[in-house]
Design a protein that fits this description.
The chain is mainly alpha-helical. The chain has 2 domains: 1-59, no CATH class; 60-115. The chain is built from 3 helices and 2 strands. Strands 1-2 form a two-stranded antiparallel sheet. The radius of gyration is 24 Å and the shape is elongated.
């Protein structure tokens, strides 16, 4: 039986996206692992509610939270666009590679003197 806990930000003076980024960073950098229980190496890990509630996090002003969110949104949008562009380039290169191999195998191009 698996049990998941969902925590909701109840502070209406805070920006939820700021805390989403903060929690993602904590997970990615394994900051929370030392507070959890379980077998982290095989994907089973639990961050107890008591430990989560006792965990101290930065609490900048709402203006600073919004500035951080705006900055990260801008950067992640740029990174996402670059990833899409890179994936498209890789797909196009694979197509060219396949076409080149096909042309060489079928004799449409002469590759005997290429070396």
């Amino acid at each position: 039986m698996l049990i998941y806990r969902v925590f909701t930000l109840t502070d209406t003076k805070s920006i939820d996206r700021y805390y989403l980024y903060l929690m993602r960073m904590g997970y990615k950098n394994k900051i929370f692992y030392s507070y959890g229980q379980g077998v982290a190496n095989i994907g089973r890990w639990r961050f107890q509610t008591e430990s989560f509630n006792d965990f101290c996090v930065p609490y900048p002003s709402r203006i600073e939270q919004q500035q951080i969110v705006n900055f990260l949104n801008k950067k992640t949008t740029k990174i996402d666009a670059l990833m899409t562009e890179t994936q498209n380039s890789i797909a196009l290169l694979k197509e060219h590679r396949t076409a080149l191999i096909s042309a060489a195998v079928t004799g449409k191009i002469d590759v005997r003197e290429v070396a």
